[in-house]
Amino acid sequence: MSVQAGHVVSLTVNGSPATRTVESRLLLSDFLRHELGLTGTHVGCEHGVCGACTVLLDGEAVRSCLLFAVQADGHAVETVEGLAAGGELHPIQAAFHETHALQCGFCTPGFLMTLVPYLREHPAPTEQEIREALSGNLCRCTGYKNIVDAVALAARRGAAAGRHGAEAAPARRGGSGASRRGAA
Amino acid sequence: MTARWLGERVPRLEDTKLLTGRALFTDDVDLPGMLHAAFLRSDDAHGVLRSVDVEAARRRPGVVAVWTAADLGEYWKPGPALVPPPPIAGLVFNSATQVPLAREKVRHVGEPLALVVAVSRYVAEDALDDIVVDVEPLPAVTDLEAALAPGAPLVHEALGGNVAARARQSKGDYAAARGRAHKVIARRFRYDRGAAAAIENRGVVAAWDAKTEELTVWDTTQAPIPIRNGLAAMLGLGESQVRVVAPFIGGGFGPKIMMFYPEEVLIPWAAMRLGRPVKWIEDRQENFYATTQERLQIHDAELAVAKDGTILGVKDRFLFDTGAYDPYGLTIPINSQCTLLGPYAVPNYDSEFTAVFTNRPIVTPVRGAGRQHGVFVMERLLDLAAKELGMDRVAIRRRNFLPPDAFPHDHEILFQDFAPLTYDSGDYGPAMDRAVDAIGYERFLREEQPALRRAGRHVGLGIVSYIEGTGIGPYEGARVTIEPSGSVRVATGVGTQGQGHFTTFAQLVSDVLGMDPSKVQVITGDTREFGWGTGTFASRGAVVAGNAVHEAAIRVRKKVLKLASEVLGVDAGELFLECGSVHVKGAPERSLRLGDLARKANPLRGGVAPGTEPGLEATAYFGPERGNAANGVHAMIVEVDRETCEVRIRRYVVVHDCGTVINPTVVEGQVQGGVAMGIGNAFYEQLVWDENGQLMNASFMDYLLPTALDVPAVEMRHTVTPSPLNPLGAKGVGEAGAIPAAAAFAQAVEDALEGEIEVLEIPLSPNRLFDLLGSRSRP
Amino acid sequence: MIVQGEYTFPGTREAIWELLLDPAVIARTMPGTEEMVRVAPDRYEGRMRVGVGAITAAEFTVSVQLADVVPPERYTMQIDGRGRFGFTRGTAQVRLAADGAGTVMRFEADLQVGGKIAAVGQRLLDSVSKLMTRQGLESLSKEVNRRLASADPGSRSPNPGPLP
């Protein structure tokens, strides 16, 4: 029970290949943070509700706390560290800065990674659509208003045509923003 | 000095690190040889702890150590009482503080029983399953009134009862006032528990360096300096041997200033014992009962009013759930007691609270810290009085506002800082005017609401006033240093959890030293950088630390001018600072870069005049004599779906006065975020316990935080009455948004339902609203 | 948590009584029971595996102490189950009454649930307990029918005679 067999996981993360031998039960979030040192991906609830750990798997926003590292074998993962390639902020990051869309910043990487594919699929969302897209990510500091403003600003500037990060990956569907309120 | 940056919307300097994933949070600390800890926690809320058998856990491969209370020896001690009882006559105070690991008894679900350290968190958690615990269950204390009845089970047998504290504060003669009253409004109010629910859970990483004999601790705390001092004392080390770093913190909201959590006591100790770094990171489920919480209070309150709506007096008797231990003393109920008075003239007041031990997790301040209860009770009483008197809601508030010439106003009772509750400044009428205007109060009541009602819609308005006592002492400090590079370093002791201190403190320095804020590097929360101070609480960062930063910058400026006047051979009065240089008035080409001046201030050869301090550096402290009174008005319009009981907030207006505003963008962000938390408290968030003290919704699936769909954009207006208690004129803002939201929400829902129900409890929820409506419609 | 109800079995009280207290039958019919042993005339011990929401297979060690046993009329069970995901404990009362050719069982359990299973499974506990109760009763009923089908017709007397 305690010592588990190792599995080889090979994947690309932010465009670079990585191979590690891990236990089958290792979460993708822990793999990224502790095996690869990519600590920009944050863990807030470990049950798929808060969205802080959102990363892209083959271009699609996923909760890395709900995936095992072995499930990412052979796939392309993108994290917040890959967004500002070349040292220049991604348009969505820049919009967050300009509109004061982050306070403690802990949830922010998850919001950014939710928005990258969302804006690619929805280049001109309405405010209500933005709020729906954001409703799968929890923020305790900002009260969301400035995040909504940031998304609108990024959309106006055409963040979908963003030069960085996720553009190479195929987009399947936008975001993980389905409201969880339905069942509540 | 020109105020070029004060009041400017400077974009935050700390953002880039946070946006790119380069900011260091506690769980990001990774050290060679690091071990991982997990805690076994009690499943029982109350019971006799017969045994904790850890032998099997110790044998598990990968496990390095397992400890129970019995293994801690002399190190096992109850935690410190953080806030001593205030000097109130007749006060009863029974102190019972949390323990590192339970011994003999368990007193709440989640209380730690054993600590496992292993090669990974996964293995440590495996080993928790190997531990066999024998608890003989005892009846749980969960109901505040039953807890006080004779024969009730006792949380702490040695105290002989469940009373944690009782304190009465009064002024005037309430009984006489009641006798003169035209109406007396009496109700029971209830305000229940929620979780602070910062998205980052707590965590502690500790490393002992046996060669330098230094302990380094990374801790998600709002109070790194007191943690360092306490750890040094507990571990028998000098304070200079302990470095506590509060790196970027993923939201605080109060519970992260609790001291000392069992994990904070044990992880550094384990690291020293094992000679290896140890990390413990709380998971979300632990956070629901191992992190402190707040809010259950039950008030039996009454308001005596004259026929014209003038407040003659208020009487309040309330119960306060302090949980299983009371390390934070009476801060919360005293805040409730004081904040109830609001912006009003209350000539006669009689308030007594009883703090009650229960078998629930420990209660310490959460954003607002008892203030919302006071506001809720007073504002609800005024609403009910207005209804009984046939008065307008706004009119009854205006009738009772303290006039602008009433300041400083002494309320004749003690505040949480043990100073008399004295309002420093304020002007409440204009704040109300602006709120009435912004929400369109008159038009809504006369035209919009009747039209909506005719169309079958249930739309209502809420408008309430509040005072927030902020910016209390004792003190904070800061050191400002001009470096040879020309950039400026500011080190201060307060930690930061997203309030924008890196930017607002830089703005304060920029104006004084004539430079761009981007050249000012602010360091917070590292005891090696600055070792004096208390922490970030009570909306005091900008007020107390801000003024210290400002004063330190002024002292550096004096040094700059003195040295520059010597170097340039002109009188200091002929100099000015701009763009990182000192210039001579009228001859701007004669200038010195501040970096060059800093180098000159630290010469390698030659003599310096007696009494000269090297470098361009100064340290200053600021301690206000007492807290100041921020104030504001919240107004909202809600629509209630009579069938589903869903409530939608259509508009939300905040008029806020926090004195001098350093950065409006940051202030508005604090208010918007506070309102979101207030809305959560009002309608979504409730920790639900069963009668056995079991928490029944310990996940974000069942405990609902407001989402982007639930929180409206707040329409914000500022009014400014500077505080005379500090040179900047600042008042605090961190908690303001959260405090009056529930009172406004309750009034608005009641109004939407045309008085069909009275809202006397918070939180509401669609379910609860449905029950309240249902009970009315039954025959 | 209160779990209560009644169920009508074919067969006499004595036959039902015997089945209800047979550890092998309990193990077969009570959902999630992996092992059940009668360690003393009035005491059972065993293991159960139960899924509640996000907790998919919580294992409990269970002990049941009988009290107030009046065959074939009534008995009380002190139930104590504990495991890594929390605990269940409480009392259950079972009463049997003759009803024509059959037997009506009335039961009422007052159970305390604690730990993780209460904390994250609360909203499902009620439906899970109802489901388990129904499944248990239906399996027991099948067991009764099976036994009746293979048993001596003499034992199917509608009148079990006076109580012992």
What does this structure look like?
The complex is a heterotrimer of chains A (184), B (779) and C (164). With 184 residues, chain A is α+β, with helices and mostly antiparallel strands. Chain A has helices at residues 28-35, 91-98, 108-121, 127-134, 145-156; strands at 6-13, 16-23, 54-57, 60-63, 76-78. In chain A, strands 2-1-5-3-4 form a 5-stranded mixed β-sheet, sandwiched between helices. In chain A, strand 3 and strand 4 form a beta hairpin. Mean pLDDT of chain A is 88; it is low at 163-184. Chain B has 19 helices and 30 strands. In chain B, helix 17 (664-684) links the parallel strand 28 and strand 29. Chain B is globular and about 85 Å long. The model of chain B has no long low-confidence stretch (mean pLDDT 95). Chain C has helices at 13-20, 23-29, 116-150; strands at residues 2-10, 33-40, 43-52, 55-70, 74-83, 86-99, 102-114. Chain C has a 7-stranded antiparallel β-sheet, with helices on one face. Mean pLDDT of chain C is 85; it is low at 154-164. Classes of the chains: A alpha+beta (184), B alpha+beta (779), C alpha+beta (164). Chains B and C meet through helix 8 of B and strand 6, strand 7 and helix 3 of C.
Short synopsis of the structure:
With 184 residues, chain A is α+β, with helices and mostly antiparallel strands.
Classify the oligomer.
Answer: heterotrimer
Our Rg estimate of chain C from Cα atoms comes to 16 Å
Number of strands of chain B: 30
Which runs of chain C of at least 5 residues are low in confidence (pLDDT < 50)? 154-164
Average pLDDT over all residues of chain C: 85
Structural class of chain C: alpha+beta
Strand arrangement, largest sheet of chain B?
3-6-1-13-10-11-12
Provide the gyration radius of chain B in Å.
28 Å
How helix-rich are the residues of chain B, as a percent range? Answer: 25-40%
Helix content of chain C: 25-40%
**Strand-residue proportion of chain C:** over 45%
Q: Mean pLDDT score of chain B, rounded?
A: 95
Instruction: Name the chain pair with the biggest interface and residue counts per chain.
Output: A-B, 64 and 65 residues
Structural class of chain B: alpha+beta
Biggest β-sheet description of chain B? 7 strands, mixed
> Roughly how many Å apart are the termini of chain C?
34 Å
What is the molecular shape of chain B? globular
Secondary-structure element order of chain C, as H and E? EHHEEEEEEH
Count of helical stretches of chain C: 3
Q: Distance N terminus to C terminus of chain B?
A: 72 Å
Give the DSSP E fraction of chain B (strand runs of 2 or more residues). 25-35%
